[in-house]
Amino acid sequence: MNSLQLQENLKKYTRIEECPIRNVLSRFSSKWAMLILCVLSENEATRFNIISKAIPDISPKVLTETLKALEADGLVKRKLYAEIPPRVEYSLTEVGQSLIPILNNLIKWALDNSAYMSKHRKK
């Protein structure tokens, strides 16, 4: 790679706010975000406790923080019902739904290649 190509790559990939792949990866780098999106994709509206039961090893605090982050990114919407006790449901936005086929492809790739990767992983 010549120095001009290297400089262009540095411009493209070093600033999170300007690099599309880093921007996306920074949002999904937690081990929970993609799992939560997959759970929400299976239902039109899902309550907090259902998500928590579907992913039993996530703490309530981390689930809350991750849902807030996904909501802030416009991937998840939160609907609060004026009831006593209050009822809150989470669902995917249209943009969140557009991500599901990509996640399904990633899941398929992982299933197809997990044995290969395990075999080649250094122990």
From TrEMBL:
Residues 19-118 form the HTH hxlR-type domain. The keyword Transcription regulation applies. The keyword Transcription regulation applies. Keywords: DNA-binding, Transcription, Transcription regulation. This is Helix-turn-helix domain-containing protein.
